[in-house]
Input
Amino acid sequence: MTYRPFCIALALAACLIGCVSGPDSTKDKEMEKQPLSYTVSKLKGPIQIDGNWDKPAWKVVPAVTIQKHMGEKPDHRPKVQAKLAYDDKAVYVIYRVEDRYVRAVAKKVNDSVCRDSCVEFFFTPGTDIGLSYLNIEVNCGGTILFGWHPEGGKAVRVTEADCNKIEVGHSLPKIVEPEITTPTTWTLEYRLPFEVVKKYCTKATNPAPGVIWRANLYKCADATSHPHWLTWSYVEYPRPRFHMPQFFGTLKFE
Output
């Protein structure tokens, strides 16, 4: 008899906690699904492309975190950060990946680099282009795959000559085989000229103060011993699939 009031109190407390935490949990999940936004910093001029995350030009630029997973929760989830900036002629992107189980075997431009330890930037360069987009995928060794996907049209690969106009700096060798199984931090940086973007997407809007692009950033490692598929902005799809422009976040150029 002496325990009955205590038990009733516990039951009421549990009910109250459930009523409070349930809606909050649902709200948090809904918030996580909202498209993200990032302000792209304007540089004073061209910067050296060497993969140096700590150089002065990048120190003042805020980073995004690529941490949402697609598919089943991965056994290995690297910590992935990225920064974007621009000048009058190009967009600059740099990644820092605190990784493990790192591999890179793709050798040629437009090889299937997504099977390696890879970072990816998918973007719609303007607000009047519908669901058309470009995807630039670069493995940890600096090998590029670049494609143009016009809405309702046939996807095309950017030519090797145009891909070679993209300067790439990376901290790891071109080929990483066998796989590195110990904790490894690697960086990758590139300069993407607007002229290349405009050649394939003729309606592209050059970055300038107030210009809006839509984009997502990804990290994958399809054919490593610990595959994973991570996104910056949430993608609502039951299995890993990055070609989903309807879920892109927003890039705002300062």
Remarks:
- Residues 96 and 123 are 20 Å apart (CA to CA).
- The first helix runs from residue 4 to 32.
